[in-house]
Amino acid sequence: MVDGTHRETEIVLEALYLWSCADDDFVMDEEQQLKMMNALMTDLKSMAATQLGEPEKSILKCLAAAASLSFNFYAASCPFVELMVANTVRSASSSDPTIPGKLLRLVFHDCFVEGCDASVLLKGNGTEQSDLANKSLGGFAVIDSAKRLLELICPGTVSCADILALAARDAVAITGGPMIQIPAGRRDGRASAAANVRPNIVDTSFTMDEMIKIFSSKGLSLDDLVTLSGAHTIGAAHCSAFSGRFQKDSHGKLKLIDPSLDTSYANELMRMCPAGASASITVNNDPETSSAFDNQYYRNLLARKGLFQSDSILLDDERTRKQVEGFANDEGRFFESWSRSFLKLTSIGVKTGEEGEIRRSCSEING
């Protein structure tokens, strides 16, 4: 980034901070949001486009779309939408503790492909769901349940994209993470293609540079990468997601080939996922506090107990090690950063205004 963009970047971060840290004592109404975003965009537009690198352009594109969202979007049309979604998530999670992790993963896979437009929820041949990387996604029934309820109370009003973003937000809160405000007004996309999945999502075997490239293309920074990786503090993964860290020996048994993994933890993983293990077996992302959204994930990284190669890299790479250590030692700092980064995540490529539609059913487009 050239020096001339420093002030603009500071404004972006300040705007995101104000949005994400809003609480009962500080809630921006629509007029305040509009004034803030107008000032932001005016300042940014004063820059010559040639002075901005691709990451900054991605951020501006993301913010321009997010500026059309509103914290009070459903205040008149469906005032109880957040309560209904939260109750649906809470009810589903009480009977199935894996739901929060599934919802959080689902919003990542939605927003990174085609933006946060619920394209991942569409069923059918050749849709995003049909890609192998999405075969293990879950939580769809929770979104469908909330949508059915809202269609009874506020028909044709609340988008599936908003429901998914709110549900993921609530999934974090009910497992002990920060409860943050996110704006609404996303509309549902009408396209979903399996071919768009792999080029846009992070694989657990990616190098740091590969992850940075994906995140940067979404308008997300290196800080966002480390912060949003903290989603792995809840949820579970199939054995195949980390099998590359092991190799079969001459006797057909697994052996550790990744020196960045703690030996005792590796032995436990091999016990749970032996050679030839069933494809249905899952392992908790966080071996210590798997049902709590906390900073244990980063403590695990310091102990070399990151489940994925993409986790361990965060500690091994000098560009991210300090942030990992900071989050491991200060949960409040992680939660504050999570609030900002999650807001950015759920603002990626949103469709607003006349774009897209409000689906009647989350699994299919309207007519």
TrEMBL record:
Q: EC number(s) per UniProt?
A: 1.11.1.7
Query: Which Gene Ontology molecular function entries are recorded, alphabetically?
Result: heme binding; lactoperoxidase activity; metal ion binding
Q: Which domain of life is it from?
A: Eukaryota
Q: Does the keyword Iron apply?
A: yes
Q: Check the record and name the InterPro entries matching this protein.
A: Haem_peroxidase (IPR002016), Haem_peroxidase_sf (IPR010255), Peroxidase_pln (IPR000823), Peroxidases_heam-ligand_BS (IPR019793), Secretory_peroxidase (IPR033905)
Protein residues bound to Ca(2+) 1: 110, 113, 115, 117, 119, 128
Protein residues bound to heme b: 232
Where would I find the Plant heme peroxidase family profile domain in this sequence? 68-366
Task: Briefly state the protein's biological role.
Answer: Removal of H(2)O(2), oxidation of toxic reductants, biosynthesis and degradation of lignin, suberization, auxin catabolism, response to environmental stresses such as wounding, pathogen attack and oxidative stress. These functions might be dependent on each isozyme/isoform in each plant tissue.
Summarize where Ca(2+) 2 binds, as residue positions. Answer: 233, 286, 289, 294
Q: List the disulfide bonds.
A: 78-154, 111-116, 160-362, 239-273
According to the UniProt record, one GO cellular component term is:
extracellular region
What are the names of the required cofactors? Ca(2+); heme b
Q: Which GO terms describe its biological process?
A: hydrogen peroxide catabolic process; response to oxidative stress
Cofactor binding notes: Binds 2 calcium ions per subunit.
Q: List keywords of the entry alphabetically.
A: Calcium, Disulfide bond, Heme, Hydrogen peroxide, Iron, Metal-binding, Oxidoreductase, Peroxidase, Secreted
PROSITE patterns (alphabetical)? PEROXIDASE_1, PEROXIDASE_4
Segments traversing the membrane: none
Name the Gene3D superfamilies on file: 1.10.520.10, Peroxidase, domain 2
Which reactions does this protein catalyse? Answer: 2 a phenolic donor + H2O2 = 2 a phenolic radical donor + 2 H2O
| Record's protein name | Peroxidase
Family membership, please give it. Answer: Belongs to the peroxidase family. Classical plant (class III) peroxidase subfamily.
- The protein's site described by Transition state stabilizer is found at 105
| Catalytic residues in the record | 109
Q: Where in the cell is it found?
A: Secreted
